[in-house]
């Protein structure tokens, strides 16, 4: 095996002597070079391991090395996402969960707190509930037809419209926020 590997290295040396000298034939590994910076090398390793899909321990080690080389969590996750078009989404998803585990171990994931978006979600749920209750009230009013005066009915219609407008604003804000995050 080593003899055939040496023959391959000799052929590579004819093409690029520089590359051939970087291959350590005793360990069958690549010696560290300075052409690519450490961050780029780490991200390439993560992309390769994501593509292989079954090297979870090595992937975790590479993610830790990438973090140590100042790669951000977003850069690591983006690498996994970008490679999904070549290796398949399921392998990228597996890699993303491995990354999540490393991020949690290193305390890099933000704990979910009651930030503005959580409060918006609660407010949206409250508005939807209010809208459903108003619709239920309207249905029961139609069933009983107790002759309620027109002014009271108009007031309820105005409240319902106001609630629907608030929900539309929340949805518009979510869409706008998602668009900003993706650009």
List the helices and strands and how they pair.
Elements: H1 2-15, H2 17-22, E1 23-24, E2 29-30, H3 38-52, H4 56-68, H5 73-87, H6 89-105, H7 116-144, H8 150-182
Antiparallel strand pairs: 1-2
- Number of continuous helical runs: 8
Number of strands: 2
Q: For the record, give the distance between the C-alpha atoms at the N and C termini, rounded to a whole number.
A: 50 Å
Shape type: rod-shaped
Strand order of the largest sheet: 1-2
Instruction: Let me know the average pLDDT.
Output: 77
Beta-strand percentage? under 5%
* Backbone structural class: mainly alpha
| Biggest pleated-sheet summary | 2 strands, antiparallel
The parts where pLDDT drops under 50 for at least 5 residues are: none
What is the helix content? Answer: over 70%
Helix and strand string, N-terminal first? HHEEHHHHHH
Write down the Rg.
Answer: 29 Å
């Amino acid at each position: 095996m080593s003899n055939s590997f040496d023959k391959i290295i000799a052929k590579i040396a004819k093409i690029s002597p520089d590359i051939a000298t970087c291959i350590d034939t005793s360990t069958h590994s690549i010696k560290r070079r300075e052409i690519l910076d450490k961050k780029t090398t780490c991200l390439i390793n993560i992309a390769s391991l994501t593509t292989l899909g079954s090297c979870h321990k090595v992937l975790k080690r590479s993610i830790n090395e990438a973090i140590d080389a100042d790669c951000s969590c977003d850069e690591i996750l983006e690498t996994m996402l970008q490679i999904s078009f070549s290796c398949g989404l399921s392998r990228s998803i597996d890699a993303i969960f491995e990354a999540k585990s490393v991020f949690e171990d290193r305390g890099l994931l933000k704990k979910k707190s009651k930030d503005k978006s959580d409060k918006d979600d609660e407010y949206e749920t409250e508005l939807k509930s209010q809208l459903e209750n108003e619709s239920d009230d309207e249905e029961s009013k139609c069933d009983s037809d107790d002759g309620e005066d027109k002014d009271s009915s108009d007031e309820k219609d105005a409240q319902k419209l106001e609630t629907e407008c608030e929900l539309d604003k929340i949805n518009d804000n979510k869409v706008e926020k998602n668009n900003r995050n993706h650009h």
